């Protein structure tokens, strides 16, 4: 508490230069973590709402990537508890104790890694999604390498924090280098994922208005989901190198993990919004085929049967419907791009082999 501060009512006490920063500029020193904790709590509410929406509509999905979604939500909740504990320790337990605030305490050790791990989980999801889209080694190798550098630097950052908390001055140098490396590599990974995803989607435009509009929506979704984390990471990197006499770098650092978490849940929940458009595209593309009597559509022709089948396109067994026609390969390719990017269904390898077999025949 305040009566623990040795300089209180002690005219012979000489505060350190760092103590004087807290005493003379409390807004720049105490404001950033307090503001970060407030915004983090608001983002946690948004994340809870998004996670509830995900559980409500995608509880039974079978893809292994669902565990990345659950892990991101759990890690963000743990981060919130940790930051509340960190803030309570600074603003309540040691209120007015400028000496305690000026030193690197053990409770501050996990600040860096608490943002790195949840962010890495979200980036792993995006790398896997882009790999399912393109199967391009020129993308996946640098993306994974940058992710490994990010996580490795975060571990080194934690090690430097432990050293600094133990009074070893070399730990502060390690913290500076590792923090810059973590933020820079994470930012590069984000930009690489976003740019490559948008490039690959635009490259596969079909020339058909319906499928091209669908690709445009996917590009828009990719940019929207990446904008928040990229901007926050960039601000964090800039403030880390410019904040020599204040702690404003803590504000973006504290909220970064939850920005990634909200971005990830926004992406997976966006599948529901794309569902109606994808069904419309499949119906329109298949419905324009010439009428031919089939077992399931003798009265309405192929168009009627395709319309009925397209309504169940989100069920894995119905995915084979996408390759039931060879008359519009370009429009169907646009649909496959959509499915690969947003739905990343379990049976995509089967779909690809089926489509290749249809093309050869």
From TrEMBL:
The chain crosses the membrane at residues 34-55, 67-86, 98-125, 137-162, 174-202, 214-238, 250-268. The keyword Membrane applies. Residues 187-272 form the DUF6534 domain. It comes from the Eukaryota. Pfam families: DUF6534. Signal peptide: none annotated. Keywords: Membrane, Transmembrane, Transmembrane helix. PANTHER family: CHROMOSOME 1, WHOLE GENOME SHOTGUN SEQUENCE (PTHR40465), DUF6534 DOMAIN-CONTAINING PROTEIN (PTHR40465:SF1). This is DUF6534 domain-containing protein. It comes from Sphaerobolus stellatus (strain SS14).
């Amino acid at each position: 508490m305040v009566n623990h501060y040795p300089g209180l009512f002690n005219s012979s006490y000489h505060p350190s230069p760092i103590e004087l920063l807290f005493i003379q500029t409390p807004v720049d020193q105490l404001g950033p973590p307090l503001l970060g904790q407030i915004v983090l709590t608001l983002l946690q509410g948004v994340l809870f709402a998004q996670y509830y929406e995900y559980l409500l509509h995608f509880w039974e999905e079978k893809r292994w990537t669902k565990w990345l979604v659950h892990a991101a939500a759990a890690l963000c909740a743990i981060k919130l508890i940790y930051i509340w504990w960190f803030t309570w320790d600074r603003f309540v337990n040691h209120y007015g104790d400028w000496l305690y605030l000026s030193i690197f305490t053990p409770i501050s050790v996990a600040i860096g890694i608490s943002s790195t791990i949840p962010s890495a989980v979200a980036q792993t999801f995006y790398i896997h999604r882009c790999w399912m889209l393109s199967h391009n080694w020129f993308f996946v190798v640098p993306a994974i390498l940058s992710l490994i550098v990010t996580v490795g630097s975060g571990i080194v950052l934690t090690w430097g924090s432990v050293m600094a908390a133990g009074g070893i001055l070399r730990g502060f140098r390690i913290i500076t280098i590792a923090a810059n490396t973590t933020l820079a590599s994470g930012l590069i990974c984000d930009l690489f994922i976003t740019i490559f995803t948008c490039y690959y989607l635009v490259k596969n435009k079909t020339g058909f208005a319906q499928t091209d509009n669908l690709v445009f929506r996917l590009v828009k979704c990719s940019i929207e989901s990446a904008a928040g984390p990229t901007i926050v990471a960039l601000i964090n990197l800039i403030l880390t190198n410019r904040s020599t006499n204040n702690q404003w770098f803590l504000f973006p650092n504290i909220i970064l993990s939850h920005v990634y978490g909200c971005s990830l849940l926004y992406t997976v929940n966006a599948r529901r919004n794309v569902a109606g458009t994808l069904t419309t595209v499949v119906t329109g593309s298949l419905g324009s085929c010439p009428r031919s009597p089939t077992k399931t559509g003798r009265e309405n022709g192929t168009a009627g049967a395709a319309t009925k089948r397209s309504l169940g396109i989100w069920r894995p067994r119905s995915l084979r419907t996408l390759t039931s026609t060879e008359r519009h390969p370009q429009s169907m390719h646009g649909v496959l791009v959509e499915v690969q990017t947003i739905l990343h269904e379990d049976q995509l390898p089967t779909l690809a082999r089926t489509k290749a077999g249809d093309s050869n025949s």
